[in-house]
């Protein structure tokens, strides 16, 4: 029995290989995502274990992100270093964003991390950093750099080096007195640039006073374990500090970095989920087909005494074998994919790889997904197989297609309330809850439509068929496509799913972009914008010195220049954390540059402890003009007065305070700058001049209005690209599904094909017939998917308009047309192989085919 | 007819299968077809029975019902001492496994298995081991010893049918049902199969029921039952080919008595 089903497996290689690909894809993406994050973690893990190689214990602030983090004093450091078992201490005086400039062209260098250290003029007691030539810095204007940094900045010992020091907010020039490297002869650990300052100078510059340390690393005496030393140090620890073993510290640091790459992991998981869902349909279809073809064989087995359980089991066994094979291949391909993506992400970094990491849990999850997906999909076909009556071995038993009524009723029961919810969410003014209602409605409507699709298949495909089904061959193709609406619908399901998702996303993104362009075009007085690039939540410690705008104002043709400060770290208003952060600017000036219509109170330049807020946020926080409310910025709580409430627009929203509030911000740097020009002034030369001014602030970008729109929508474009890739994955699987269905039809209708050929249909006619069927199935899926997708996209946009996040619903016709074209091509591609097989049939043999 | 009893139950020791007042109705309303109208038949153990009759007379239907492949609309059926009426799928499956064997006109073998694997399939399904001595006897009787590793596609029609016979015999069922086993074969291969079936009845006491259109084939049987329009209209014991032909001619000439009832 087992032998019989395994033998059969080999005979159905082609058909099963399609199901196999579906499994490989979904398992591949899942495994890829897991391997990616584990491989990344291993790479960073090996980095930090190098850094912490001789480190037994690390002492650091509990909250390093705090506005004013705690520092170790000289006394505290001495107490800790006198703890029994400490062999050596390396105090930590460091800052990030210390950027050297190249000596030849004056451009800032770019490295994967840009660090500044304060060193005490002696060799590193932990033996990680070694002096190669020259000396350690002994004076405030001296620096020592790592060999990699010297290479990047094109300097050698004795040269002068311009360095941007973030806390000073401006570049200074130093003399390079030495070049250092790492133990083991490495020039850098991970492609970082390092500038080492005299310790006292660094302390004063970074921390505002000498004799302060951010923390320290300790090496242990022979025979003292890390954990023991950690406990001893913990007893003497000043408040606000924590002690970790070297190993714990490495884990913590690599975990923090891993988070940065999480989004790619989630995209891959998205692919895996989509491939799995679509794969279920494909596998379902494949096994249904196989069961239909094997009716006689299964009936024979039943006649010979096989129980229904044995027959169902033989189908499930077949599914199991395919799934295990698919999962194995998927795992291998996924490991390759994960390693490749990891290489693409950080392969350029000077960070040595720790090899491809495939953890046991990855293997377990890969097989679980593959087996689960396949068995779920093969369950119904297996039950169907077991219900083949034994008489079918001897005579054709027509098993009537189950009526579509039950399926359609369930579909309607889901789709109708789904549609009602979508409409309610889109049209009723419910604020944020609208999106939950919409989402619930969208899911119901979507599932309902999928269930209704067999019912819709007949009329829709007929209608579409009238357009392309010319000639007798075409007509036959149309007839074949509507012959088994259930099968047509299941085949098209993969396309419906993919196209609905992309249709929704494309419509929302297009609407959002158009809205933004509308507003920018109409009512904005901003011609040039300056934008700091952010690597962490901005809080005033990244960006540019607002004083630089004085130089901008001096450029001929410039009307106004406004600095915007932004703090998104631990800010709260009316006792609620502010998710959008707090902006500080000259609000009077802002209202001249941006559309800010007052709906309550007045919109004007603010004094200290005054704020304005958009109407949506005001409603959420229950604020109105004249209210007083507590505001926390930079850890300081003050009572602010609400001066005015303005109407929300897609470009200006949130809580705005006046420039005096910047005092409380963690850093004094501006995050954005907006520049308006006099009538008739060309923006391009002004942009060029501002770029020159901003050159001292690495990472700050300058652009015209168009580039602002592009930048504002860039993240949405990224999202759309990700979704387009999703569509491609769905389409690939869909093509396999169509191929599958067509192959089946050809085998099933071999006699029929022979007959039409015998009565005079040409080879070309036969090819056309198969192609028409394929394209109709595809276009049916695309049409349904686009209708759903655009509808849902419009509904979501309508809800966005209600909360002033967008202004118009824009349908991306061009993109949609493109998707349709791609689908038609996919449909034609899917027909190639089956059409060739059909055309090659020998007429006589086909007619007498059993 | 003397039968040499060996390892099967003795002839006459009760019926191997019987049907009482068996009705089979297909469809309903306009499309209703009455395939069997109150058939009463008893098939003795250790004998070879042929069923004949014009096309559409209900021969296959009768066989399917007797074998538990199809369910009767009305009436009682039993195979050995098992009553089929009211058996659920599990019961019918067990019956097919233990008590009946089949030979069909076509599509007898699984194309993916070798001849040997096909022969042993019913035992494999039931999870039983073949009796090696009996297996060898069967193989030599059907003359397949050198063809065992071949696939059905590598065998001639006659050889395929012999494999099917071997498969039916190897589990030594209470009854073997054969529906036109020689229908697709030339006269020589057909004769081989018939001789072979005859011998398994004579030498091993196997019970066989065979549907056929061929008077020559029917002459190999111990008894011939004639069906017409869903009823048994005549029967013949120890038939010769001429006697059978003669009977058929007579039946064709005189419309069946009671057919209009
Ligand atoms: N599944 C079915 N549905 C409806 N009618 C059927 C079905 N199977 C058989 N019949 C009808 O029952 C009657 C008996 O059919 P059966 O197959 O038993 O005839 P038969 O004697 O075996 O004929 P043949 O010699 O041609 O094989 C016929 O009229 C046939 O049309
Ligand atoms: Mg028949």
From TrEMBL, chain A:
It is a multi-pass membrane protein. It comes from Catellatospora bangladeshensis. It comes from the Bacteria. InterPro entries: ABC3_permease_C, MacB_PCD, Macrolide_Exporter_MacB. One of its GO terms (cellular component) is plasma membrane. Keywords: Cell membrane, Membrane, Transmembrane, Transmembrane helix. Belongs to the ABC-4 integral membrane protein family. This is Membrane protein.
Automatic annotation (TrEMBL), chain B:
InterPro entries: AAA+_ATPase, ABC_transporter-like_ATP-bd, ABC_transpr_LolD-like, MacB-like_ATP-bd, P-loop_NTPase. It comes from Catellatospora bangladeshensis. PROSITE patterns: ABC_TRANSPORTER_2. Coiled coil: none annotated. Keywords: ATP-binding, Nucleotide-binding, Transport. SMART domains: AAA. It comes from the Bacteria. Gene3D superfamilies: P-loop containing nucleotide triphosphate hydrolases. GO terms for cellular component: membrane protein complex; plasma membrane. This is ABC transporter ATP-binding protein. CDD domains: ABC_MJ0796_LolCDE_FtsE. Residues 17-254 form the ABC transporter domain. The lineage of its organism: Bacteria, Bacillati, Actinomycetota, Actinomycetes, Micromonosporales. One of its GO terms (molecular function) is ATP hydrolysis activity.
């Amino acid at each position: 029995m087992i032998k019989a089903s395994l033998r059969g497996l080999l005979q159905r290689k082609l058909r099963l290989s399609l199901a196999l690909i579906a499994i490989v894809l979904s398992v591949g993406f899942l495994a890829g995502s897991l391997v990616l994050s584990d491989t990344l973690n291993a790479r960073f893990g090996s980095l930090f274990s190098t850094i912490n190689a001789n480190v037994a214990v690390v002492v650091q602030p509990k909250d390093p992100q705090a506005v004013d983090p705690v520092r170790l004093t000289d006394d505290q450091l001495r107490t800790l270093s006198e703890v029994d078992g400490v062999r050596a201490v390396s105090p930590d005086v460091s800052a990030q964003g210390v950027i050297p400039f190249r000596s030849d062209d004056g451009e800032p260098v770019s490295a994967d991390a840009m660090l500044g250290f304060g060193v005490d003029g002696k060799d590193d007691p932990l033996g990680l950093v070694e002096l190669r030539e020259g000396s350690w810095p002994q004076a405030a204007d001296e620096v020592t750099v790592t060999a990699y940094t010297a290479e990047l900045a094109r300097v050698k010992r004795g040269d002068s080096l311009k360095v941007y020091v973030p806390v000073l907010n401006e570049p200074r020039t130093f003399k390079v007195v030495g070049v250092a490297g790492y133990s083991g002869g490495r020039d850098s650990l991970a492609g970082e640039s390092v500038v080492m300052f005299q310790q006292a100078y660094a302390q004063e510059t970074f921390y505002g006073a000498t004799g302060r340390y951010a923390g320290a690393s300790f090496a242990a005496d022979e025979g003292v374990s890390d954990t023991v030393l950690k406990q001893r140090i913990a007893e003497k620890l000043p408040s606000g500090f924590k002690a970790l073993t070297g190993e714990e510290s490495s884990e913590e640091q690599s975990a923090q970095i891993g988070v940065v790459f999480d989004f790619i992991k989630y995209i891959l998981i998205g692919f895996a989920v989509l491939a799995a869902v679509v794969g279920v349909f494909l596998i379902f279809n494949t096994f249904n087909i196989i069961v239909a073809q094997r009716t006689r064989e299964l009936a024979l087995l039943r006649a010979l005494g096989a129980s229904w359980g044995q027959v169902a089991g033989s189908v499930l066994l077949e599914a199991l074998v395919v799934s295990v094979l698919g999962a194995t291949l998927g795992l291998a391909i996924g490991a390759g994919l994960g390693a490749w993506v990891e290489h693409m992400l950080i392969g350029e970094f000077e960070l040595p790889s720790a090899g491809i990491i495939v953890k046991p849990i990855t293997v377990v999850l890969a097989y679980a997904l593959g087996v689960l997906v396949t068995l779920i999909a093969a369950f119904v076909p297996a039950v169907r197989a077991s219900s083949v009556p034994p008489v079918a071995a001897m005579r054709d038993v027509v098993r009537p297609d189950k009526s579509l009524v039950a399926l359609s009723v369930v579909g309607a029961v889901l789709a109708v309330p789904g549609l009602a919810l979508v409409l309610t969410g889109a049209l009723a003014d419910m604020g944020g809850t609208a999106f939950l209602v919409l989402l619930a409605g969208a899911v119901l409507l979507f599932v309902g439509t999928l269930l209704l699709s067999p019912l819709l298949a007949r009329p829709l495909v007929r209608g579409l068929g009238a357009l392309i089904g010319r000639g007798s061959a075409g007509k036959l193709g149309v007839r074949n496509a509507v012959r088994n609406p259930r099968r047509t619908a299941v085949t098209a399901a993969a396309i419906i799913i993919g196209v609905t998702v992309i249709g929704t996303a494309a419509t929302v993104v297009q609407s959002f972009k158009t809205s933004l362009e509308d507003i920018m075009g109409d009512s904005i007085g901003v011609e040039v914008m300056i934008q700091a690039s952010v690597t962490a939540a901005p809080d005033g410690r990244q960006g540019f010195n607002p004083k630089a705008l004085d130089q901008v104002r001096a450029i001929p043709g410039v009307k106004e220049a406004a600095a915007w400060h932004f703090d998104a770290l631990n800010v709260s208003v009316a006792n609620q954390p502010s998710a959008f952060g707090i902006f500080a600017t000259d609000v009077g000036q802002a209202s001249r540059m941006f559309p800010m219509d007052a709906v309550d109170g007045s919109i004007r330049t603010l004094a200290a402890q005054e704020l304005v807020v958009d109407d949506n946020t005001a409603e959420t926080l229950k604020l109105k003009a004249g209210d007083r409310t507590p505001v926390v910025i930079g850890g300081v709580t003050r009572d602010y007065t609400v001066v005015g409430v303005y109407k929300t627009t897609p470009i200006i929203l949130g809580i705005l305070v006046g420039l005096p509030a910047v005092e409380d911000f963690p850093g004094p740097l501006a995050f954005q700058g907006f520049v308006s020009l006099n009538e008739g002034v060309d923006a391009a030369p002004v942009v060029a001049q501002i770029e020159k001014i901003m050159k001292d602030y690495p990472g700050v970008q300058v652009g015209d209005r168009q580039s602002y729109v592009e930048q504002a929508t860039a993240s949405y474009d990224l999202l759309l690209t990700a979704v387009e890739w999703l569509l491609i994955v769905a389409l690939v699987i869909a093509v396999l599904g169509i191929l599958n269905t067509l192959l089946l039809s050809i085998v099933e209708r071999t006699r029929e094909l022979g007959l039409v050929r015998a009565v005079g249909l040409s080879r070309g006619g036969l090819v056309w017939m198969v192609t028409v069927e394929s394209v109709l199935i595809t276009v049916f899926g695309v049409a349904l998917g686009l209708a759903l997708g655009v509808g849902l996209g419009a509904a979501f946009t309508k809800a966005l308009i209600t909360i002033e996040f967008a202004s118009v619903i824009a349908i991306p016709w061009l993109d949609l047309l493109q998707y349709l074209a791609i689908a038609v091509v996919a449909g034609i591609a899917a027909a190639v192989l089956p059409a060739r097989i059909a055309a090659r049939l020998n007429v006589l043999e086909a007619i007498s085919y059993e | 007819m003397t039968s040499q009893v060996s390892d099967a139950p003795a002839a006459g020791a009760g019926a191997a299968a019987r049907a009482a007042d068996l009705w089979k109705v297909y469809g309903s309303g306009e499309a209703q077809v009455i395939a069997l109208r109150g058939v009463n038949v008893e098939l003795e153990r250790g004998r070879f029975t042929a069923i004949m009759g014009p096309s559409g007379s209900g021969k296959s239907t009768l066989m399917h019902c007797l074998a538990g492949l199809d369910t009767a609309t009305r009436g009682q059926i039993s195979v050995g001492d098992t009553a089929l009426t009211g058996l659920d799928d599990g019961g019918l499956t067990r019956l097919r496994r233990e008590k009946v064997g089949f030979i069909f006109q076509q599509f007898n073998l699984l194309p993916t298995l070798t001849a040997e694997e096909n022969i042993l399939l019913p035992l494999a399904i039931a999870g039983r081991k073949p009796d090696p001595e009996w297996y060898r006897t069967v193989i030599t009787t059907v003359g397949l010893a050198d063809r065992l590793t071949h696939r059905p596609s590598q065998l001639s029609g006659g050889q395929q049918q012999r494999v099917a016979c071997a498969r039916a015999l190897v589990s030594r069922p209470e009854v073997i049902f054969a529906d036109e086993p020689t229908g697709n074969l030339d006269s020589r291969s057909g004769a081989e199969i018939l001789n072979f079936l005859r011998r398994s009845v004579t030498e091993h006491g196997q019970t066989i029921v065979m549907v056929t259109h061929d008077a020559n084939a029917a002459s190999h049987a111990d008894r011939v039952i004639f069906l017409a329009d869903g009823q048994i209209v005549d029967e013949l014991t120890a038939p010769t080919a001429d006697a059978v032909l003669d009977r058929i001619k007579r039946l064709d000439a005189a419309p069946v008595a009671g057919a209009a009832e």
